[in-house]
Amino acid sequence: MKTGSINKIHDYLYEIPETYKHGMRVPARIYASLQLIENMDDAVLDQLTNVCLLPGIMKHALCMPDGHSGYGFPIGGVAAIDPDTGVISPGGIGFDINCGVRLMATSLTYDEVKPRLKTLVQALFNQVPSGVGSDGMVRLKPDDFDEAMVLGARWAIQNGYGSPTDLDFIEESGCMKGADPRAVSDRAKSRGKDQAGSLGSGNHYLEIQVVKEKNIFDKKIAKQFGIVRDNQIMVMIHSGSRGFGHQIATDYLKRFLSVMGPKYGLSMPDRELACAPFHSDDGQNYYRAMNCAINYAFLNRQMMMHSVKNVFADIFKKSPEDLGLRLVYDVCHNTAKLERHTIDGKEKEILIHRKGATRAFAPGMEGIPDRYRTTGQPVLIGGSMETGSYLLAGIPSSADAFYSTCHGSGRVMSRHQAKSSFNGRELQKQMEQRGIFILTSSFPGLAEEAGGAYKDVDEVIQATERGGLSRAVAKLLPIGNIKG
Question: Which residues does residue 154 pair with via DSSP β-bridges, in sequence order?
């Protein structure tokens, strides 16, 4: 990215003024080191400053350290919209609505898991459906599906997939209010009814991880999050709303493009930023449908976690409780949510678009489980399958970013470039030689996810910390992985 028009606020925060582009209502800000910014593709700057043109946008548009170009918004984009005067834009949420990450702790150590690692990964691969278009664990009848859209993870638990206590450790308690199945098309329902409890493809994964003592950066918070020993085994799930969310986004983008100008008199320089007033019939219908997809993703990850517990119990011949398997937290990416924030000294309800960005509430804030009230919200950052992931905590200084932070390491190569640069089968062999056993339903898909296709996750986390977005608690290293 060319940085000539970017002003430095400090070493990890840069601003593009409103004068950069005609019609910008607010400045744009990028939380990153100068090196990370220079390595971002040029489209990030254009997309981020286009976000500044959205009606109702408040304070500034933001890009996180893992930012790269996306659809409409850059991935890693955040925008706060006044719901009374502003819009909602599917391009600011994404096609995989509530793509998110779920982390489980165990009482197992690496030495206990290593002899059974291949058996464990193979069993997980057999039990958790993965891959493009894969079916899930259940086929939902129409009435059940409508109920599941409204209840989210609660529906999964009521139907035997987990414990009610799990809900305490899911963002929004696993159920977004305001979901209405009547706002969802028959096509979206058709795509989603058979996919509940499936991983999907792309950058989605189910990963067995190990935490080494040297990679625990805040032992007090780590203990509160469930990390209590050297070489402890953790399990991370990264997945979303599958074809269901994708179809909802597709349906409403098409609708918004047809009514944005003729019905609402709105115009954006990029059709990917199609939008509608939040309180209009169209805006509210999309919001209701989007909440259905958010809930679908929650129940999807809940069902997969249930399968993970069953596999571990079968392999180790102990109950999930005896193995210490418990949910640490489940976080969303790709949402638009009504939250209360202080803007210019006044508390106000605002609509936060987070596209490839994570909520990161600080200690004491409402919406955090009681267990984490003194630590801040757990934040789960999925890195590449070769390099590792991070567990962070929310901190007060992220108020300027609407309590938002990064969501991953961020791509530096397109999927096409990665497939041209890496060989999936060779990559699998090389990873196994380094102690990471991986199974996939698609070797071209595996090549797309090579570590070299992503930014240095350590550099991203350093910028996240020094930018005041969240605090690093521990790094989680991959040892076993299943991918679509």
Answer: none
184, 147 in Cβ contact below 8 A?
A: no
What b-and-e string marks burial along 388-403, b requiring 16 or more CB atoms within 10 Å of the CB?
bbbbbbbbeebebbbb
Helix axes 117-127, 281-316, angle to 10 degrees: 140
Residue 405 φ then ψ, to 5°:
-150, -175
Residue 364: the pLDDT is: 97
By the 10 Å C-beta count (0-12 exposed, 13-18 middle, 19+ buried), 220 is classed as exposed
Q: Is 407 annotated as catalytic?
A: yes
Cut 0.90: pTM above it: yes
Nearest to 329 by CA among 370, 357, 366, 294: 370
Query: What sign results for the dihedral spanned by CA atoms 213, 219, 225, 228?
Result: positive
Dihedral Cα 94, 100, 462, 389, nearest 10 deg: -130
Three-state DSSP class for 472?
A: strand
Contacts 24+ apart (CB under 8 A), 307-312: 307/124, 307/127, 307/128, 307/137, 307/197, 308/104, 308/124, 308/128, 308/206, 308/235, 308/237, 310/127, 311/120, 311/123, 311/124, 311/127, 312/106, 312/120
In 395-464, the DSSP E strands lie at 404-405, 437-440
Identify the CA nearest to 333 among candidates 382, 372, 376, 397.
382
**Burial of 408: CB neighbours in 10 Å, binned 0-12, 13-18, 19+:** buried
Asked whether the beta carbons of 188 and 140 are under 8 A apart, the reply is no
Torsion of CA 246, 420, 75, 438, to 10 degrees: 70
Residues 60, 238, 246, 407: which is the catalytic one?
A: 407
Place of tokens 């009374």: 84
Q: What is the pLDDT of residue 80?
A: 98
Specify the DSSP class assigned to residue 25.
S
DSSP 469: S
Sign of the CA dihedral running 394, 406, 53, 20: positive
The model's pLDDT over 15-53, given as tens digits with 9 standing for 90+, comes to 999 999 999 999 999 999 999 999 999 999 999 999 999
What is the maximal distance between C-alpha atoms in the chain? Answer: 65
137, 303 contact by CB (below 8 A): yes
Domains of the chain: 100-338+358-483 (3.90.1860.10)
> CB–CB of 232/180 below 8 Å?
no
H helices, E strands: number in the chain? 14, 19
Q: For residue 303, which amino acid is it?
A: M
The pLDDT of residue 121 is above 80: yes
